[in-house]
C-alpha cells in the first residue's frame, strides 16, 4: 500500500497562497509549470504535505466550482503562536482569533490564508507564551 495523502487548497493566486504556507514552515518541493506563475505548488513540512492549485482546477478536472464560504481549516503547530500572529498581522493577514490558552493545554490562534480559509496556529504541551 502506498502511504501518501495530502489536502489540495484551491487558491485565487497560487503563488500568494503558497507563499503564505511557506511562511508557516512548509517548503516548496514541486511546481507546475516549473517557471513563471504556477498553477500547482506542492509543499512539505517534515512528513506532511499540502498542495495549492488554481481555483480553476476543480472545473477543469471534474466540472465543479470551489465554494465561497469556509472550504477547509488547516491546523499547524508552531514554536511561538504570539510572535507568528504578530508577524502575520504585520503582513496584512486577518486575525480571526487572538492567541489564547486553551483548557487542554495548547495556546491557539486563528488567522486566514490569502483566500480567507481559517488556519489554526497552536503551541502544544502547556508552552503558552502569552499573558
From TrEMBL:
A Pfam match: Glyoxalase
PROSITE patterns assigned: VOC (PS51819)
InterPro entries the record matches: Glyas_Bleomycin-R_OHBP_Dase, Glyas_Fos-R_dOase_dom, VOC_core
Signal peptide: none
Domain VOC: 3-124
Protein name: VOC family protein
Amino acid at each position: 500500500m502506498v502511504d501518501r495523502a495530502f489536502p489540495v487548497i484551491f487558491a485565487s493566486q497560487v503563488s500568494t497562497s503558497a507563499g503564505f504556507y511557506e511562511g508557516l514552515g512548509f517548503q516548496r518541493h514541486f511546481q507546475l509549470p516549473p517557471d513563471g506563475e504556477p498553477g500547482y505548488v506542492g509543499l512539505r513540512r517534515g512528513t506532511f504535505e499540502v498542495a495549492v492549485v488554481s481555483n480553476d482546477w476543480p472545473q477543469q478536472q471534474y466540472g465543479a466550482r470551489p465554494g465561497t464560504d469556509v472550504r477547509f481549516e488547516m491546523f499547524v503547530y508552531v514554536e511561538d503562536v504570539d510572535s507568528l500572529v504578530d508577524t502575520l498581522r504585520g503582513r496584512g493577514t486577518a486575525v480571526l482569533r487572538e492567541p489564547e490558552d486553551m483548557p487542554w493545554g495548547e495556546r491557539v490562534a486563528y488567522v486566514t490564508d490569502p483566500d480567507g480559509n481559517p488556519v489554526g496556529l497552536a503551541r502544544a504541551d502547556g508552552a503558552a507564551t502569552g499573558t
